[in-house]
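FAQ

Q: What does a record look like?
A: Structure on top, sequence underneath. For example:
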């Protein structure tokens, strides 16, 4: 088995024990720790720990490593490395906010789901390069006065950041969840949509108008434009006056229906005991027709991820929760044929309405929008023969 940390020459035994102890402590501190429900997602805790405490230990690790490799004054280098990590953290908190926007320009894709993995990788590389530049002056000052030089400082910073990122990348990958990419087969067409097709009503991400589309992407129709200065916030369904119909409503900021948009839409909807459907998943499959189910996990009122189960046994999870990519899921609707409609959004990108099949794991973007509500056609049972 390969050593986790590099082997050092026996002549450096005293220095070796110090470096190994520090590296071992750093490794223990970077081990994933579980966090549940309202306590926050593991990625949230991982990021908070890294920013507040982890930079101290990363600075010690980097300082001891480059002091050994480049024969630098140990204490001075460690102190400068700690200061460099906290300074680059503060600067990076402002600069990295634009990194995803830059990545979207370099790797365009609309909707944002397409090309997101390339943007995520590009943002990580940009973060690594930014750390090298921001910490360069600190490492340039680490050698003794006669040995200082900007070129040498850049080399030291490059080695330090590469070593720390070699630990941080697996750390964040283990704490995050990219099941929306790893566990699915993302495609651009919606040919897998189950028949008969259902109608999806949603709020458009670009102009806040209400649109309607079928689950195969066809018959996309503008339902109503948003009033000037009063964008629609969310949608819900209520029973229509006629049997087997639904009314479409626009909700206020509290999720309560205030404006009726369409009366008597033919079809079937789950009204969630009269509550707003804006943040509550719907079940539109006939009872007993599927062994597949979902279990949502929440944080701050929105779904951070969805566990998919078959016969009550966990199969996989859908989430998009990483250090540079934190998308929320919501408004899940389970349809006949084990299709599921939900929305996917984050602070850095506009929302997307997604169609996904639970057992084939095929996934595609249905529309640019949010808070989808679905009306499924009523399937009549054939009359029994006499």
């Amino acid at each position: 088995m390969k050593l986790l940390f590099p082997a050092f020459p026996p002549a450096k035994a005293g220095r070796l024990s110090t470096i190994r102890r520090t590296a071992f402590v750093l490794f223990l501190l970077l081990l994933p720790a579980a966090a549940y429900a309202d306590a926050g997602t593991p990625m949230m805790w991982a990021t908070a720990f890294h920013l507040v405490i982890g930079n101290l230990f990363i600075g010690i690790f980097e300082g001891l490593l480059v002091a050994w490799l480049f024969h630098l004054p140990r204490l001075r280098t460690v102190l400068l490395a700690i200061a460099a990590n906290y300074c680059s953290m503060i600067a990076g908190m402002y600069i990295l906010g634009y990194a995803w926007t830059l990545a979207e320009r370099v790797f365009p894709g609309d909707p944002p789901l397409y090309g997101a993995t390339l943007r995520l990788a590009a943002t990580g590389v940009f973060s690594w390069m930014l750390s090298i530049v921001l910490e360069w002056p600190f490492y340039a000052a680490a050698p003794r006065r006669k040995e200082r030089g900007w070129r040498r400082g850049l080399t030291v910073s490059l080695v330090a950041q590469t070593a720390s990122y070699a630990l941080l990348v697996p750390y964040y990958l283990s704490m995050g969840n990219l099941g929306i990419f790893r566990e699915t087969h993302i495609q651009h067409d919606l040919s897998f949509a189950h028949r008969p097709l259902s109608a999806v009503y949603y709020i458009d991400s670009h102009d806040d108008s209400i649109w309607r589309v079928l689950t195969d992407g066809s018959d996309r129709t503008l339902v109503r434009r948003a009033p000037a200065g009063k964008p629609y916030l969310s949608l819900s369904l209520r029973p229509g006056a006629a049997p087997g119909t639904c009314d479409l409503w626009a909700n206020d900021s509290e999720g309560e229906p205030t404006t009726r948009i369409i009366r008597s839409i033919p079809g079937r909807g789950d009204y969630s005991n009269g509550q707003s459907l804006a943040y509550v998943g719907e079940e539109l499959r006939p009872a007993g027709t599927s062994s597949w189910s979902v279990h949502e996990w929440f944080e701050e009122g929105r779904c951070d991820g969805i566990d998919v189960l078959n016969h009550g046994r966990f199969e996989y999870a859908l989430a998009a929760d990483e250090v540079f990519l934190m998308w929320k899921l919501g408004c899940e609707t389970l349809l006949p044929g084990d299709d599921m409609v939900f929305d996917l959004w984050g602070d850095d990108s506009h929302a997307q309405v997604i169609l996904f099949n639970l057992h084939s794991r095929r996934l595609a973007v249905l529309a640019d929008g949010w808070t989808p509500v679905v009306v499924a056609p009523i399937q009549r049972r054939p009359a029994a023969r006499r």
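Q: Is there anything notable about this one?
A: Confidence is low (pLDDT under 50) at residues 1-41, 273-280, 382-386.
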